[in-house]
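In practice, a research group might receive sequence data for several interacting partners and want a quick structural hypothesis before committing to experiments. The following worked case mirrors that situation: the sequences arrive first, and a predicted assembly follows.
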Amino acid sequence: MTLFQWIFGTLCALVALRHLVRLARGNGSRLAGMFWGLLWAGAAVTIFRPGVTGELAALFGIGRGADLVTYLGLLAGIVVTRYFYNRYRRLETTLTAIVRDRAIKDAEDLLYQRGSGH
Amino acid sequence: MIDSINNSDTKVTSDRLPADVFVVVPAYNEAPRIGPVLEKLLEVASTVVVVDDGSRDNTSEVVRRYPVWLLRHVVNLGQGAAIQTGITFALQKAAQYVATFDADGQHEPRDLLTMYKRLIEERVDYALGSRFLGRTENMPWSRWLMLKAAVWFTRLMSGIWITDTHNGIRMMTRRGAERIRITMNRMEHASEILDQIARSGYRYIEVPVTIRYSVESLAKGQKTTAAVRLAAKLFAERLAQ
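A structural hypothesis for the assembly, expressed as tokens:
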């Protein structure tokens, strides 16, 4: 095994273990624990056994394992971006509604206050 | 497009807008400019709604010297949000017509009279100001280019064929205003409004207007880089829908 595999493979395996232990103890969200545990475990496996991604890629008809990883990363990036964009828009809409509501309730009729009346 | 249900046959001869025409003026850090703008505007408009969009200067204090409605956003949301606040307020106050008018002194208030007249006489729901049918003073070529690009971008995105897509002076009937729901808070609202006009099926016209560029209005206006960001945001919004 190379130095890279020893260092990064071990690090990924430890992070995966941490998530799985937290999951077993019932700490935090089950879904998040499973997702992150599997993701880091997958990363450790592909570092220790690089041939795995190639075998998986072949299953999908993709030539190289690295290409499969790139495609999956791209897909995940799009999904995550869209998720956060929608969250941001919802927050913006809520904030706008609150600010607007207050502005309308506190509207100052300066024509009336100046004694001219509407 | 379908015919307007505006049933007024009134010939407009007055040089002043009636009280049921609400003119919405979004303002952000406009203290040095808004006083003279309101003075000129109040010569033709009876009901003016200024929406102070969380200004950090004393815009509100200046506005309080004039006989208008003043609404204040506690934080800065953007011009689109300020316009929607003004429209919502005007509709709550039984406005029959709603106009929008920028606070930076670029617009000519008397253009509102022409818009009102044509809105009624031509029985349409939206009158949109066009500087390219009217007149511009001191417009830099970079702004001309940016606005022309915006026209083509809007034609592509909204399918609405007009000559000036980012003009802040516009007027609409109550029915037309009820169809406008600006959700994009910042400068993208101009395209969003056109999009909603196109979808409403209501009739619209373009009215020649005058735009005067000054050093201050250009400094506050949209930069070319901002226009690129705006286009990107509109595109992202479409993708997310």
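Before designing any experiment, note the following. The first strand of chain A starts at residue 108 and ends at 109. Chain A touches chain B through 22 residues (CB under 8 Å).
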